[in-house]
Amino acid sequence: MIRYDFEEAKSDTRLVHVGTYKRSLPVSLDRMYENALDWAHLPFLHSSSFKSICPLAYGAWGWKADVVDVKDRPLRLELLLDRSCRRWITRNLEGDSKGAEIWTHVFVVDERLLDLVIDFFVPLESMKNRDKVGLAYAKSYERLYDEDVQMMSGRQTELDRKVQKLTDSQNVKIPLPKELPLVIKLRDREYLINKEADDWYVYPSRCPHLLGPLGESEIHDGVVMCPWHGFKFDLNTGDRLVGGKNDRSCSLGAMPKISQVGDTLNLTWP
After folding, report:
1. CA distance 226 to 38
2. Of 12, 126, 160, 165, which residue is 20 to 30 A from 70 by alpha carbon distance?
3. How many angstroms separate the Cα of 215 from the Cα of each of 140, 212, 222?
4. pTM of the entire predicted model
5. How far does CA 157 lie from the centroid of its chain?
6. Domain spans of the chain, in order of start
7. H/E element holding 34?
């Protein structure tokens, strides 16, 4: 069952209108725009729909990218954002369903409550499958927004969290945790204690990019990957890994050193 309204197609449009998707989301307009412009999360957060994305151009206006979907079909997508109309239009420029357009309008109900009205247009020659095609688009968007709302809400929660000024902290000793990862708070920041083979690591619980939950990802060869955008971080240095090299422009920041002595873990700030 689809958890929103579905209206039958209209007949007076320049393309074939195959239906309208309506849904309320408990997020702010800022988070919604941020999500629309965020092309990088598609193959990670929406891995059930997309395999890869290669941006051709992007900015405050929107983005254009070459995309491969889960059926290995190449697509070229373009998203154009119009803030004055609270609207963005997503077009399929190349590939399967070339010429299709998806028009998304946002209506602000409250500071953190939006109504979305999304119209689907496709270049069909025949009218007989309009509602079937429209329903398929609606089901796809239900899945995408179920996944998106978790990311948007999680990011808003982290932005709302009050973080006090960092203070000097004494070295910390804690007993060996029974379950991993262990969440701890150091210098008014949330960290994770985790282990790979015989190596212990302590690192921030949130990605510095857009606050993705690093605790949802396993460590591989001393590297953790953000589940939202695929950013990878070297847990020994805290630097982001780009093409096998370290990028300090987006790093995990200050991290204590961790060592095991008997049944105790020692955390020491450098």
Report:
1. 14
2. 126
3. 28, 9, 14
4. 0.80
5. 14
6. 6-160, 172-268
7. helix 29-37
Q: What is the mean pLDDT of residues 41-65?
A: 96
As assigned by CATH, the class of the 172-268 domain is mainly beta
Separation of alpha carbons 259 and 264, rounded Å = 8
Q: What are the pLDDT digits (tens) for 236-259?
A: 999 999 766 666 778 998 899 999
Which residues partner with 117 through β-bridges?
A: 22, 105
Run of H or E including 138 = helix 130-160
Q: Which two tokens stand for residue 100?
A: 């299709």
- For residue 149, the one-letter residue type is V
Portion of the chain with pLDDT greater than 70, in percent: 88
pLDDT greater at residue 125 or residue 216 = 216
- Of 46, 2, 250, nearest to 150 by C-alpha is 46
Q: What pLDDT band is residue 5 in, cutting at 50, 70 and 90?
A: low
d(CA 138, CA 93): 20
Q: Is 65 helix (H, G, I), strand (E, B) or coil?
A: strand
